[in-house]
Design brief:
By secondary structure, the chain is α+β, with helices and mostly antiparallel strands. It has 2 helices and 9 strands. The chain has a 4-stranded antiparallel sheet, with no helix packed on it. The chain has a 3-stranded antiparallel sheet with strand order 1-2-5, with no helix packed on it. The structure holds flavin-adenine dinucleotide.
Length: about 150
């Protein structure tokens, strides 16, 4: 199998996207939603930068920018703050199953070369959980004799 770091994949994809002319603004959180007169989302506004602890404008102050789009895709991951507003405004969770969350733990192990098989993936389910609890473990053999060892509990 190919085992990849999501952070490295994102960095690689960012370079590809920028080469195609996509503008990426890392470090700027989308702080608010913008709506057109029909109530449809047509953009986001980024947060003000350089605001002091007391709320005053520091020397590096820069006001937030409005970024408008024909299409606006919200991809904040789980528990997004803007997604939360949209879910409430458009009642997106009405009649749906409640969200499900899990906790995951991971360690990076350096193993002996003779115990390392790059690309090996092993998953386990069940033990040590009981019959009512979902979850399992994983072993991902990365490069350089490293193995990601983890456990996820629903
Ligand atoms: C411990 C763990 C292990 C996992 N292992 C695997 C695995 O081995 N294989 C697999 O396929 N999946 C795995 N997953 C699941 C996978 O990581 C997720 O399903 C996937 O990352 C979700 O992608 P996403 O783009 O929806 O959200 P995310 O990856 O969460 O990306 C959302 C991004 O938006 C940013 N963001 C949030 N709010 C704002 C805002 N207002 N303005 C600007 N940016 C914002 C966040 O900082 C984040 O970078 C794992 C998840 C966890 C927690």
């Amino acid at each position: 199998n190919y085992i990849v770091s999501l952070g490295n994949v994102c960095r690689w994809l960012a370079g590809k996207a920028e080469a195609l002319g996509v503008e990426i603004y890392p470090g700027f959180a989308a702080a608010g939603l913008l709506y057109n007169e029909e109530g449809a989302v047509n953009g986001v506004v980024t947060g003000d930068m350089g605001v002091e602890k007391d709320g005053s404008h520091g020397p590096g102050f820069a006001p937030g920018m409005a970024l408008m789009g024909k299409y606006v895709l919200i991809g904040e991951g789980a528990r997004g703050s803007l997604a939360k507003q949209l879910i409430a405004k458009y009642k997106l969770s009405d009649g749906r199953e409640p969200g499900k969350y899990g906790i995951g733990l991971k360690e990076l192990w350096q193993v002996k070369p003779e115990n390392h098989r790059p690309g090996l993936v092993q998953h386990s389910f069940g033990w040590p959980l009981d019959m009512k609890t979902g979850g399992g473990s994983f072993l991902y053999h990365l490069e350089d004799n490293q193995v990601a060892v983890g456990f996820v509990l629903h």
